[in-house]
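FAQ: What does the model actually see?

It sees only this:
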Amino acid sequence: MFEIKKNIVLIQQRITKAAFLANRKSADIHLLAVSKTKPASLIREAFNCGINQFGENYLQEALSKQQELADLPITWHFIGPIQSNKTKEIAEHFHWVHSVDRLKIAERLSNQRPIKMAPLQICIQVNISEENTKSGCHPDQLIDLAKAIKQFPNLELRGLMTIPKPTDDIIKQKASFATLNKLKNDLNEQLTLSLDTLSMGMSQDLEAAIAEGATWVRIGTAIFGERNYN
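And it is asked to produce this:
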């Protein structure tokens, strides 16, 4: 418990400092704890330290944790690549999806969202660095995808998400995040939207992301430690 609490305090301090340097309110930047590969017991520890927003990449792992942690009022975010055969369970068990990157997935999520549930909060994942190994729509496809998603009755389009190519160069980090921010602003202007969400920045580059307008920073390693994929 002590290690998790210490890590959360350090991350919150980094967020507060980065917000100050960017002349932003730290309350406008939300911490999403990325708990993939980590046991439910660590999620419970983090919850007891004041965190209630958790992001998961792998559906079956997430569903198991959700069942084990059903007594906690957690808001669950799906942040991993989405296969068509996974959309029903994602639509039924998550509050947010950050990784919608094509029309077929959005349509299935809307059709499979239970009527009794609030609209699913959606971010479009954009492949800013145009890497072949990464998910995300091409920036040139973004307007058409956003235009379609805004018509789906059971989805609420909130903003954009990206995972840029890793680099230690803060200038390059900021450039990628600034590009996503501009894309969001362009969508708002061209489609008369009110997108308010930029899901960008992780343990190694959250400062650059906050400087360029991040509203969600997705933090895993800096809270839970290195991941074990074995």
